[in-house]
TrEMBL record:
Mutarotase converts alpha-aldose to the beta-anomer. It is active on D-glucose, L-arabinose, D-xylose, D-galactose, maltose and lactose. Residues 10-337 form the NAD(P)-binding domain. Keywords: Carbohydrate metabolism, Isomerase, NAD. The keyword NAD applies. In the N-terminal section; belongs to the NAD(P)-dependent epimerase/dehydratase family. In the C-terminal section; belongs to the aldose epimerase family. It comes from [Candida] anglica. It catalyses: UDP-alpha-D-glucose = UDP-alpha-D-galactose. PANTHER family: UDP-GLUCOSE 4-EPIMERASE (PTHR43725). This is Bifunctional protein Gal10p.
Length: 681
């Protein structure tokens, strides 16, 4: 790792194809990253998936490089030590039709960036150039594989913008030799991140070979057109140097480290080819991809494409020796990873039935967005903030209490719709014993610790979500993740907590899972939605319930901690105050996810045609009527009732229940709860 703890690398175009992969590698190498992208050819989903992969927030600014004022603010806000500059328009064909737009975006955008860098005394830049600057290298006799000293002669406006920018960087260095510029000339980047979470998401009809082939493979295009088989190669198709995008991304780290190692006070201007040094023909790539897919794909050989040349293979020796970098993956790896990306994301980052917006009042802040999925009669909205459920609308009736702005969410302390963690419900005296030692937690409820302490999961921005369709295409799945640091609210060990929502046409199911690096830490996760079936009424009065159990934990009325006794409660309506832990079964385990869902509650209201059913794999659930809610102008007492499946109250301090909640570094915590909706019979 070379990144220092406080300084940042600014990645322009970091939401794009190569940028997003590079951000992952930068963070994996210990760098802090801030992204600037105007999303003209990308979507924020790429950034949110990068965050999910690296399990860290990555600051993002939707800023056009040509907007010096906004760009300057990013430099003011972050201590930027260097820039990796991807942001550009990149379609060769398009550039021949709208050259001015290309010069303005690419060249002018870079000038504004360099001016801003200079104004903030940032003089380190890694620039995305392209092999396209070499032009048609077959004009020389012996220039393939292509070395960096090959004369430049780009043949299209896009390539010329790269050529101009390289020259600008060279001139800046000549004028001030403390500038450090790495010019990286990419050959043909292909493939995707092995996780299948990020990849290339071309708009419209893809121009490039592999994105096109991928769309043929999933049935979005009929067949591949092979542009000529009469070239002088082993099978008649042209030769290119295809490089896996992850290898390419790593090349940027190598270049950055090389620049960082240049003698203090000195500068550098230097070009490096990033390629594998090995050429492959169109048919080589076609066969590799068919192998990844598992069957032959339709193609037709057509005439040559204008501007195509026989061979563009890199001589990558300079990067290999100076940067100590070389490509490690081959076209089979790239095809396998591209196929995973394609099958996991058949429409790229877009998912039918899903959309997101920023939460009102967040002013372009993407860290807490509203994610809405719609499935037939059901529409459910979730927030990053607390991985909360904001809205559940079934047959046009909203069934939960939700707020509109982030400030409203932040100012309430009733866990509205939120994920509750690390430890739902009370821990007596805010402490527990483990390995003979007493661990003291944040006491936020008199003498007790409640719902994870004063800075619990309900107040955290979860990363993600990854949104996808279930394997049978029927349901929509949203996956959020949170890394809760060791010591947060006093809890030992880091906890990685995942919240996965599945939305079907009449249900929303939540699955929790968590792992830790601690030898023992208590975990109890639940959801705190306030349900209200009473139509437009402001309270839940009149709500009728059927419970699967009448066994309840008796609690001390002052401390609300269990006495050890079990009492019997027959609850058939919510007209009075209820705040009880009802027991489905006392025996359980740390991971209940694989157990069958058991229906624990059915609720209805005379004024509504709808019925709510709650099923869970959990041994107990807290039923709570929200009698003290007070959100002025929004919600008052008894605005909703909560059904919070989880483990028994204070289990961590009760010998016979400890194993229900103590998670160690060899196990995974898990549970599932399903809320389903139907019309009354
Ligand atoms: P991409 O389009 O996926 O990424 C470029 C990103 O820059 C996009 O997210 C876009 O929204 C952003 N952007 C464009 N103009 C901007 C502006 N004015 N202000 C802020 N953001 C802006 O492309 P990519 O394939 O990831 O390419 C990244 C870089 O690598 C580009 O400079 C490209 O020319 C270069 N390159 C790409 C290839 C390739 O085959 N993909 C080959 C050689 C060089
Ligand atoms: C193109 C760009 C180049 C960019 C590179 C990487 C041009 C002229 N050059 O290079 O600037 O750096 O992409 O993204 O556009 N092919 C087919 N059928 C298809 C598509 C492509 O046979 O549908 C063939 C082409 O003839 C070529 C090879 O596949 O031989 C690769 O094509 P492509 O992916 O478009 O990349 P390049 O043309 O090499």
């Amino acid at each position: 790792m070379t990144g220092t703890t406080n300084s940042y690398i600014l990645v322009t175009g970091g939401a794009g194809y190569i940028g997003s992969h590079t951000v992952v590698e930068l963070i994996n190498h210990g760098y802090n990253v801030v992204i600037v992208d105007n999303l003209s050819n990308s979507s924020y989903d790429a950034v949110s998936r990068v965050e999910y992969i690296v399990k860290k927030p990555v600051p993002f600014f939707n800023v056009d490089l040509r907007d010096s004022e906004k760009l300057g603010k990013v430099f003011e806000q972050y201590d930027i030590s260097g820039v990796i500059h991807f942001a550009a328009l990149k379609a060769v064909g398009e550039s021949t039709h709208i050259p001015l737009k290309y010069y303005d975006n690419n060249v002018n955008g870079t000038i504004k960036l360099l001016e801003t860098m200079a104004a903030h005394k940032v003089k380190t830049i890694v620039f995305s150039s392209s092999a396209t600057v070499y032009g048609d290298v077959t004009r020389f006799k012996d220039m393939i594989p292509i070395p960096e000293h090959c004369p430049n002669d780009p043949t299209n406006p896009y390539g010329k913008t790269k050529y101009v920018i390289e020259n600008i960087l060279h001139d800046i260095y000549n004028a001030d030799t403390t500038w450090k510029s790495a010019i990286l000339r990419y050959f043909n980047p292909i493939g995707a991140h092995p996780s299948g979470l990020i990849g290339e998401d071309p708009l419209g009809i893809p121009n490039n070979l592999l994105p096109y082939l991928a769309q043929v493979a999933i049935g979005r295009r009929e067949k591949l057109s092979i542009f000529g088989n009469d070239y002088d190669s082993h099978d008649g198709t042209p030769i290119r140097d295809y490089i896996h995008v992850v290898d390419l991304a790593k090349g940027h780290i190598a270049a950055l480290e090389y620049l960082n190692n240049v003698t203090e006070g000195a500068g550098l201007f230097r070009e490096w080819n990033l390629g594998t040094g090995k050429g492959s023909t169109v048919f080589d790539v076609y066969h590799a991809f068919c192998k990844a897919v598992g069957h032959e794909l339709p193609y037709e050989v057509v005439g040559r494409r204008d501007g195509d040349v026989l061979d563009l293979t890199a001589n990558a020796t300079r990067a290999n020796t100076e940067l100590k970098w070389s490509a490690e993956k081959n076209i089979d790896d790239a095809c396998r990873d591209l196929w995973k990306w394609t099958t996991d994301n058949p429409k790229g980052y877009a998912v039918a039935g899903y959309q997101w917006t920023t939460l009102a009042g967040t002013d372009g802040d993407y860290t807490s967005r509203v994610h809405t999925v719609t499935k037939d009669d059901l529409s459910v909205s979730f927030l990053n903030y607390g991985a909360s459920i904001q809205k559940v609308e079934f047959k046009n009736q909203n069934l939960v209490c939700g707020l509109d702005t982030l400030d409203e969410y932040k100012s309430q302390d009733i866990y509205l719709g939120a994920t509750v963690g690390r430890y739902a419900n009370r821990i007596a005296n805010g402490q527990f014993e483990i390995n003979g030692e007493t661990v003291k937690l944040d006491k936020n409820n008199g003498e007790n610790s409640l719902h994870g302490g004063s800075n619990g999961f309900n107040k955290q921005n979860f990363l993600g979500p990854i949104v996808k369709r279930s394997a049978d295409e029927e349901n929509l799945i949203l996956q959020f993740v949170l890394v809760d640091k060791a010591g947060a609210n006093g809890f030992p060990g880091e906890l990685i907590a995942a919240v996965e929502y599945t939305v079907g046409n009449d249900f929303v199911e939540v699955e929790y899972s968590a792992t830790t690096d601690a030898s023992g830490t208590p975990v109890n996760l639940t959801n705190h939605s306030y349900w209200n079936l009473a139509g437009n009424k402001s309270t839940i009065d009149g709500t009728q319930v059927k419970l699967a159990t009448s066994k309840a934990l008796e609690v001390d009325p002052n401390t609300l901690i269990p006495t050890g006794n079990v009492s019997t409660l027959d609850i058939s309506n919510l007209d009075g105050k209820v705040d009880n832990c009802l027991i489905v079964r006392e025996s359980s385990q740390i991971n209940t996810s694989s157990e069958s869902l058991v229906e624990v509650l059915e609720a209805s209201h005379p004024d509504s045609t709808l019925v709510l059913r709650v099923e869970t794999t959990e041994p107990s659930f807290q039923l709570y009527t929200g009698d003290y809610v007070d959100i002025p102008g929004k919600f008052g007492p008894r605005c909703g009732f909560c059904v919070e499946p989880g483990r028994l109250i204070n289990a961590v301090n009760v010998e016979k229940w400890k194993q229900l909640v103590l998670l160690d570094n060899k196990s995974t915590y898990g549970s599932r709860t399903r809320y389903s909706f139907k019309l009354k019979n």
